[in-house]
Amino acid sequence: MKTILEIQKLDRQIRVLEREVDKCPASIDFKNYKKLLQEGKHRFEQLEAQASEVIKSYNTALNRLSKYKGNSEIVKKRNVDGISLDNISGLISDTNSLASELIEENRRVEDLVRKSEEIVRRSADLSNKLTEAKLRANTIKARIEAKKQEVAPKIAELEAKIKALEPKVEDKEKYEKYKQMKQNGIFPVYVNLEGDFCGGCKVELPLNFIEKLKTKKMLSCEHCGRIIMYDGK
Fold it and tell me: Which stretches does DSSP call E strand in the chain?
């Protein structure tokens, strides 16, 4: 068991070095770059949907204007010389109604134009940002690679130490379980009992679990799955 814990200690040091790469400024820049690409894709999809809606509304407006044009021709061709006084109010009402509808339709068209201009502007801004980000991507990747190369010798040295320790592991079954849990993202695998809490996930443990742990010396945490060790203190 002692050898497995020594290997886990070395694995911890490897994790620290790997996190140095993950948290270096270049890696953060690259994550932001990927986030921008994802947001850009989503934003372009939104803009495309908005543009389709504007086109649809614009076509509807054109159809309405065609109808109004026909109505205006009817109003213009009415024979005002032969119309009776009783029907003059009707002609005036028709003309006023048509004029009001045309004004309202003109307002809708102007609104569509404004929306179209805004879509074009926002699309251009987003396109410029994405182009700039893509130009910086290769530089960012080179910086990440340089950081990886910086820590690579240290990681290789630690991995060599682990290889040297593996033949000394007595409980091969426990070591295989350790490697499997580590591969599944459960790390550290072995943790200490810290008061009444799991040393891994920091969840408070039930009293009956702690009493059982004191007898068994090792038990899997019911919350995170790590193996809690009890050293008798």
Answer: 190-194, 197-198, 218-220, 227-229
Backbone angles phi, psi at 139, to 5 degrees: -65, -45
For 191, the enclosing helix (H) or strand (E) is strand 190-194
Contact 195, 187 (CB under 8 A): no
Sheet arrangement for strand 190-194? 197-198, 190-194, 227-229, 218-220
pTM, two decimals, is 0.60
Paired sense of beta strands 218-220 and 197-198, if any: unpaired
pLDDT digits (tens, 9 = 90+) for 198-230: 999 999 999 999 999 999 999 999 999 999 999
Question: Which residue is listed with tokens 């929306």?
Answer: 115
Nearest-angstrom CA–CA distance, 42 and 175: 45
Q: What is the pLDDT of residues 23-72, one digit of tens each?
A: 888 888 888 877 877 777 777 777 777 777 767 776 776 676 666 555 55
**Distance from chain centroid for Cα 186:** 24
**Residues 212 and 219 sit within 8 Å (Cβ to Cβ):** yes
CB 189, CB 181: distance < 8 Å: yes
219 contacts 213 by C-beta, under 8 angstroms: yes
